[in-house]
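User: I've been going back and forth on whether these two constructs are worth ordering. Before I decide, could you fold them both?

Assistant: Sure. I'll take them in the order you sent them. The first construct and its structure tokens:
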Amino acid sequence: MRELLVETLSKENHPPEVDQKGNVIANRGTADSSGTHLVLNTHIDTVPPHVSYRRDGDTVRGRGACDAKGPLAAMLDAFCSVEVGDGRLTLAITSDEETSQFGGAYVGDTLTADGYIVGEPTGLDVCPAARGNFGGQVTVFGESAHASDPTEGINPLRVVGTLIEALEQYDKHCGPGKHDVLGSPTLAPTRIGGGGPLNRTPADCTVSFDRRTVPPETIAEFIDSLESYLRGRLPDIYRFEVEAAYPDSPNPEAFATDLDAELVQALADVSGGKTRPFGAATEASYFADDAPVVVFGPGALADEDGPVAHADREYVSRSAVKEAAEMIQGTVEWMI
């Protein structure tokens, strides 16, 4: 996919570079421009399994059709067609949004701009906010013993019920409360692991969880707060650790762009779509500390029949892709 993207941009006389993280970066306008600098960002990777391409009239079906090949096609068209004027436009396409997100974090660290449009399936709605996403785990430690005499050890499985109940009650006692735009955070236990031979009690067990944050809570603050909270909920006999499930990967923080920001207003006026939060985690958070960010694109995470993105019925309409391209182009020309 990256090779096709590079080839297409080169044929359009906008030869890109591929940075050290595998991101495809192309620019229009000059780096020393005094005008507005906007960035169009989305990703080229998809989730497994592969679902074959099928076109049915206006509808394109297949893995990644809406997440995020539809937004990518719209952004590529807008990037190549727009009148840049005295501003600057960057196309920044990342390679690992669905997995490690090193690409998006790297773009956020190395690029600065006046605004970012992030391509995701929003149904052409304007989404200036999204909850953060953190995968973590609580490991409880005990002492292994032979199952014929379990009293000789400390069985961490005995406290799993208490731990799960504590996780489900966390926001009632310690959470940041309901955000005006994003609503309430969530903390959901999602996996339990531990144990070995059936004739021994385990030395440790792990409960993994998914955390969706809302401002002003940061992921680092949440980890510290959860650890302190659990000290008061779990018996002292058990030692435990709260850790990131994927410690080597970045985690997208929650963000909420000011609804009065020019980028939000421009895209809302051009598209006519409603303004609402985006329903999933996104790389947009890596850019939110630099400038206003809006998530926008054709397709939907789900429709009336169930999940669409990441599902075996994933689809996008070609007409929606064309509309998105025109709306993005109109917004860019409004801004720069």
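The second construct, handled the same way:
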Amino acid sequence: MERTLAKDVKEHIGGQVLLKGWVHALRVMGKLNFIVLRDRTGTVQTKIKGYDNSDGSLKEEASIKILGAVVTDERAPNGFEVDIEKLEVISTTFDTPPIQVNRSREQIGTRLETLLSHRPLSLRNPEIGGVFKIRAEIIWGFREFLKSQGFLEVQTPKIVAAGTEGGTALFAVQYFEQKAYLAQSPQFYKQMLVGSGYERVCEVGAVYRAEEHNTTRHLNEYISLDYEMGFIEDFHEITTMETELLRFIFANLEKSCARELELYKIEVPKVPSEIPHMKLSEAGDILKKNFKKNMNGDIDPEGEQLICKYVKEKTGSDFLFMTHYPTENRPMYAFPCEDDPKLTNSFDLLFRGLEITSGGQRIHDYEQLTSSIRGRGLNPADFDFYLEIFKYGMPPHGGLAIGAERLTCQLLNLANVREASFFPRDRNRIVP
């Protein structure tokens, strides 16, 4: 007999099913054992009379196999359950689990550090594990939408010779006889592949930042959703593309992750047809006038939260494109603003007070780019591998990077971005 998944049991009322999964909950009432079985699709209630558990192998979180008949019962969850005809304990539990998997997140009452230290077990919890079904659909939506827009998915090196952010916050690695680094971003390679003739490229991959932050917003390894597009007129083509991308992703989530969204009591936010744009300088004026807060050249996390609150009240949008960051605060390849070369045609996308995207138009002129590199105190010769394609008709281009964990975190109102990483890497954690 083929296995039936928990979500499909209701289709077999009056028939027989073979179930495989874990003991989510076990209740013994005299000679009657009620077993809630959990598999990757959900849970189903089963019951068995007179089961001999003298060896103690039937426990919560043991893996089991059940053969039984599906019967209706108004008292059971969803109005049906499985009468067990044969029960086999595949693998029992050998210790008391450090985490109560069958409780809600609030009922678990376990510190995040404990949940992360026992990550494979904590992921069995439907709420905790459900985060990654949502994250997976976000990534699927990213790929599917960009493919429909003519983007080629690429894979770029994660061991690199130079940093994309001017040589800071790099993890150095010994690469045979020379020093190399873990990639901060696929930025150089995205641009080179645009110039190679592909015009539009995208990537889903890990990136590494050796920043000594230890906050609820930061990870030292995270999944970056990148795209780069050529022959653009200005950076608004990039923000328009991201707006439509988010609309596609969220529409798919409503259809494919209804169960997980219900667990978190989440209503997917509406992405407006045009996400509001605001210059950084304008945000500074608003913060000073309305919140008595000085920005001091850049916006900090508190400022991001306040300005998003302001925009939400004024426009109803959970999203805001913050634009025109100073040249000194952006990488060497950021395209200067035509009206004021001290500013750049760059942006961040803020979602409910948190930056989830950074992007902008890039410098495509070879002489201008080499001059910008020298202006940062760097030697263009160190970037010959990157600069070569700019000598041969590089088109105007730009792109962005979305933090998959941050987007998931904000969507589900998680308290810490680590909750949206399978096995987080932060300032203090390198296992499991």
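Notes on the second construct follow. The mean pLDDT is 96. The chain has two domains: 6-91, 126-420.
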